[in-house]
Design goal:
20 strands, 6-stranded parallel sheet, 14-stranded parallel sheet, mainly beta, about 40% strand
Length: about 280
């Protein structure tokens, strides 16, 4: 049995403080935003079943760590036909802080057919090790990005940021002129001027974003399932790919490459991209 060791202790340690479940009235963006505003650190916001088209960005602020829980894949269905976004971009913006409870987003189906912007469906950024988990979500019709992680800088600094993405299925369209990706892991926006490349590497530890047990299915040859750059650190394992592979920027690119990368036990079927292959 594979166990994500760096989150295991967080998931098994009992919570001694009181937590509350806040029920959103619907799966609409306004009702979820209202419920998040009511929640305190450690609470759960339960989103009911239904199909809802979002009309505005939903934000989980850095002042609290919560669980945003849908009723299940195929039950709670988010539709982003409007291409909603904000600053930073993303239909759902997850902000974290080291002192907060872990923020988790789970149990949704997500249709991105209308998002032709360059922004992701879910964007995560903040500080703290093991501060987020994005899991058990199925994305369809991805034309840009499904999940983007910003500011993942590895090194012994107060700005480190890591978490887990698991059991996510990403089905991407490949219209002409687009380069969809399922996962995007970024380090610093100014990687060339930052010191993360001088940091010691922490392989096999929680100083990285873990992406595992995910599925990427592309309608045709495109960019990558995963891209990483600007000094990012990640572990990529036990993922399956159809008509796509994954890759990272190199030191010769304008965004500089990843600082630390581990990839193993991934599988590929009918891959025709011919680049960045890894097992």
């Amino acid at each position: 049995m594979r166990i994500v060791f760096f989150l295991l202790s967080l998931l098994l340690v009992p919570t001694w403080g009181e937590t509350t479940t806040i029920n959103a009235a619907t799966c609409g963006s306004a009702d979820i935003t209202t419920a998040i505003g009511t929640a305190a650190d450690g609470d759960t916001v339960a989103v009911p079943g239904g199909t809802c088209t979002w009309v505005a960005q939903v934000v989980i602020p850095a002042t609290k760590g919560i669980v945003l829980q849908g009723a299940g894949i195929g039950v709670t269905n988010i539709v982003n036909t409007n291409g909603v976004t904000g600053v930073p971009g993303g239909a759902l913006l997850v902000q974290t802080a080291a002192a907060n409870a872990v923020t988790r987003v789970t149990g949704f189906s997500w249709n991105a057919a209308g998002n032709t912007t360059s922004y992701s469906e879910i964007t995560v950024y903040g500080t703290g090790l093991d501060r987020f988990r994005i899991d058990h979500i199925t994305f369809t019709n991805i034309q840009s990005r499904a999940v983007a992680v910003l500011g993942n800088v590895s090194g012994l600094t107060a700005d480190e940021f890591s978490g887990l993405i698991d059991h996510v299925t990403c089905n991407a369209l490949v219209p002409s002129g687009t380069s969809p990706q399922c996962f995007n892991v970024n380090g610093s926006w100014n990687a060339e001027q930052q010191a993360m490349f001088a940091f010691a590497k922490h392989l096999g530890t929680n100083h990285a974003v873990y992406i595992e047990n995910c599925t990427c299915v592309f309608a045709g040859t495109a960019d990558e399932c995963l891209d990483a750059f600007e000094g990012a650190s990640f572990v990529y394992r036990y993922n399956t790919h159809t008509h796509i592979s994954f890759g990272i920027h190199g030191a010769d690119s304008s965004n500089r490459g990843a600082h630390q990368a581990e990839a193993y036990r991934n599988s590929f079927t009918s891959n025709s991209s011919g680049k960045y292959m890894a097992g």
